[in-house]
Amino acid sequence: MTPDGLAALVRARELLLMLDYDGTLVPMAPLPHLATPSPEILNALQRLAGTPGRVVAVISGRRLEELQVMLPLTGLYLAGTHGAEWRDPGGRIYRRLDPASFKKMMDILEAMAVECVNGKDGFLIENKGLSLALHYRRAEPAAAVETLNKFHRRILPVINKHGLEVLPGRKVVEIRPRGVNKGIMVQYLCRRYPQAFPLYFGDDRTDEDAFAALEGGWGILVSPAPRPSAATFSLSSPREVYRVLLLLNGNGRPGWQ
Ligand SMILES: O=P(O)(O)OC[C@H]1O[C@H](O[C@H]2O[C@H](CO)[C@@H](O)[C@H](O)[C@H]2O)[C@H](O)[C@@H](O)[C@@H]1O
């Protein structure tokens, strides 16, 4: 699907526009804090969020606190930690889980990750309170395999005992409470806005839960190459996602670089 084709199909409808952040709205970067949106993306999202007939939601594995810094926008949903916490367009904050009850567990997992990484270069441990991510984007491939195997063995008893799950992502392994996934947030929004046609844009394994939860809408996989997915269509890059946002804003000028 081309961005122009997709926008032409949905432009006239009332839309529930849901987007993943990393790899979808913003291109991947070597480190999480470097994946920041351009002013053009921020403008496009802000315009959409202020347009009648458009409900906009960004649904990410990042913490809500971090998303609010990355996307200093108003009038849209920001959902963090795979939908475990979110801010609504009116600025109210909601949490499905109490971070306090997971703190001890995440601290234990963090200590295990530190032990397995053992000071090796290229790893990043991110304790998000409700989940823990072990990034290996900049690690040597052999070191990544060895460390991840060790980490999996180390955490297995804890995972099973405490109802957690392990999710492989793009150069990251994440541990989060079972039952928390982007699909739950998508379902909530679809039911809250039944009149709006749902579209979900995502690039990663965690977005598959969201595609599967769409109630009569379309999932748009963001990937340069075809791959198995529950999505309906695909776009090749965040750049193409940006073009769809521009077109939905009624601004089809080519040439976002
Ligand atoms: O659900 P998402 O919005 O796609 O968030 C998924 C994870 O994204 C971040 O990590 C990933 O992106 C970084 C920046 O491009 C990259 O450096 C890292 O290797 C990727 O794993 C974020 O740090 C995680 O907390 C999110 O779960």
From TrEMBL:
GO terms for molecular function: metal ion binding; trehalose-phosphatase activity. This is Trehalose 6-phosphate phosphatase. SUPFAM superfamilies: HAD-like. Its cofactor is Mg(2+). GO terms for biological process: trehalose biosynthetic process. Pathway: Glycan biosynthesis; trehalose biosynthesis. It catalyses: alpha,alpha-trehalose 6-phosphate + H2O = alpha,alpha-trehalose + phosphate. Belongs to the trehalose phosphatase family. The keyword Metal-binding applies. It comes from the Bacteria.
